[in-house]
Amino acid sequence: MPLTLEQLNAASPTEALALLDGLYEHSPWIAEQALAQRPFRSMAHLQHALAQVVRTAGTEAQLGLIRAHPELAGKAMVAKSLTAESTHEQSKAGLTQCTPEEFERIQQLNAAYNERFGFPFILAVRGPRGTGLPKQEIIETFARRLDNHPEFELAEALRNIHRIAEIRLGDKFAAEPVLGNDVWDWQEKLAEHSDPGFAEKGQLTVTYLTDAHCACAQRISHWMRDCGFDEVEVDAVGNVVGRYHPATEGARYLMTGSHYDTVRNGGKYDGRLGIFVPMACVRELHRAGKRLPFGLEVIGFAEEEGQRYKATFLGSGALIGHFNPAWLDQKDADGVTMREAMQHAGLCIDDIAKLQRDPAQYLGFIEVHIEQGPVLNELDLPLGVVTSINGGVRFVAEMIGTASHAGTTPMDRRRDAAVAVAELALFIEQRAARDGDSVGTIGLLNVPGGSINVVPGRCQFSLDLRAPTDAQRDALVRDVLDELARIAQRRGLRYTLEESMRAAAAPSAPALQHHWERAVDALGVPVFRMPSGAGHDAMKLHEIMPQAMLFVRGQNSGISHNPLESTTNNDMQLAVDAFTQVLRQLAEEPQP
What whole-number percentage of the chain has pLDDT above 90? Predict the structure, then answer.
């Protein structure tokens, strides 16, 4: 019989400890301490309690936990002395069926890893879907993590141990994240479509109105119909729009969604997670024959990343009347204009102006998104409530000095453009850190025509400055530009500076943010509030209606815009559950 929370909460300390036996390899102290927090409100509450015990245990106890785990395909497996749980996991990943070459490679990696870190390599080999990772992926991950810093790798080992415990806990409770699995599977299937030049390499790239992009739109629209949406269309800019009607005709709609285009060689979850989570919720409403007092409009925005044309947020921007007709004449790298791409995709350019939404017809906009950062991962939290989307300003600039001989020009007589920019970069690092949530980046740095034996006379660079409020952003910009002027004057240089982008901060609407907070709390997960450093479609909709976002933890230290971007079926399930909670809360409110 599967374990239940009621049974665990009611058991004696000794019985409860026995019920949780085997979650953490040879480490019953973790469950023993976590059980002091009973009663547990949910599985997520229990998992967080377990993780917090490890988090506060100290380095020696953490190392003891890691060292209690067996090596992958190691001596314990060969001797058949693994625990039943480890045997099951290594078997599911095929590690008990290694070829001699695979086994030898894993043994080499085990030895190198132990020599570098002093503890065994830990990987949740059942993977983010729970069905087992391919052996080649395991070996590639093993080799990649050998390059990590020891402190980072210690944390990564613990994160994988918590994932192993989460899967084992699911086995004990017979708790299958059914909707999380469906959301996972939709994303995997959608990732089968990729642009030429990337698809052949196994890389995911979907840029605006390519054949792969159009195929994604068709897949999403077909899945929306299967989910029970009443209306589904691909609109005049390529957005996929699904509408689930309210119980009463004429009622307002809640808008949600995210983008389905990607950066080049990107991840599978950026944007797309925010389309499929509400789709799963609509499907469940449809299956139950249930209508809400408001309608749901789920949108797969066609373009957010600005990869093919210089028209970032084109999909969501069109909905607020911000489509610039001049964009139609832009050309991509192959000389194809946006107008030609739209015509090739069968879009009706004349209808773009009709896409603008009337905010009076909407309750607001909410968006689920993978965090794209390490914070939730480091805190062992699956969900985060967004307080504001950072405002940002970008500049392209050039520092201009004098190119001279690297051997004959004394250090105190140089007009070195690159050193000046390096000094500015260090100032930005210190100044942004002073605010806590501000960030500043020089992401592009180029010495045109540079040579190993020439003092740089020119240095081209970018500035990307962001903060949760416009006032905080503007103060950061002001201080950085003032420092830029001081550096140039002191070093006898001049510079050019061009502002290339300015976006206002988008603070979350208090009422909608509170709904997310209540939803997260209802799941038994601590409510963690955080700003979004990245831009999202929600910041465009913010210009005409209230908005609020929910972040979902990413694996691999939360990396995004990268093939390693990932999250788990369990965290996706929690996102669906939180979204369902928000719908329930809104349905209980008086409707205008």
Answer: 90
Residue 420 and residue 398: Cα distance in Å, rounded?
A: 11
CA distance 371 to 387: 13
3-state secondary structure of 395: strand
- On whether the CB atoms of residues 133 and 72 are closer than 8 A, the answer is no
Identify which of 120, 122, 121, 73 has the alpha carbon closest to the alpha carbon of residue 98.
73
Question: Quick one: tokens of 79?
Answer: 């001797």
Work out the average pLDDT over 105-116: 95
Q: 151-175, pLDDT tens digit by residue?
A: 999 999 999 999 999 999 999 999 9
Determine the Cα angle at 79 with ends 75 and 80, to 5°.
115
Rounded Cα–Cα distance for residues 219 and 393 (Å): 36
**Phi, psi angle pair for 40, to nearest 5°:** -90, 135
CA distance 53 to 65: 12
Alpha helices, DSSP H, located in 56-134: 59-67, 75-78, 84-92, 100-117
Give CA 490 to chain center in angstroms. Answer: 42
> Distance (Å, rounded) from C-alpha 140 to C-alpha 102?
11
In contact, 456 and 401? CB cutoff 8 Å: yes
- pLDDT at residue 220 is higher than 90: yes
Tokens representing 513 are 């943010």
Q: Which amino acid is at 99?
A: T
pLDDT in tens, 432-448: 999 988 999 999 999 99
Q: 341 and 209 in contact (C-beta within 8 Å)?
A: yes
**74, pLDDT greater than 80:** no
Q: Hey, how many other C-beta atoms are within 10 angstroms of the C-beta on 53?
A: 21
Q: pLDDT tens digits for 546-571?
A: 999 999 999 998 999 999 999 999 99
Supply the DSSP string of 291-316, one letter for each residue.
--SSEEEEEEES--S-SSSS-TTHHH
> Which of 124-157 are b and which e, b meaning 16 or more Cβ less than 10 Å from the residue's Cβ?
bbbbbbbebbebeebbebbeebeebeeeebbbbb
pLDDT beyond 90 at 85: no
The CA-to-CA distance between both ends of the chain, in Å, stands at 48
Query: Which are the contacts of 171, defined by CB distance < 8 A and separation ≥ 6?
Result: none
Residues 6+ apart with CB under 8 A from 293: 246, 247, 248, 251, 587, 591
CB 463 within 8 A of CB 480: yes
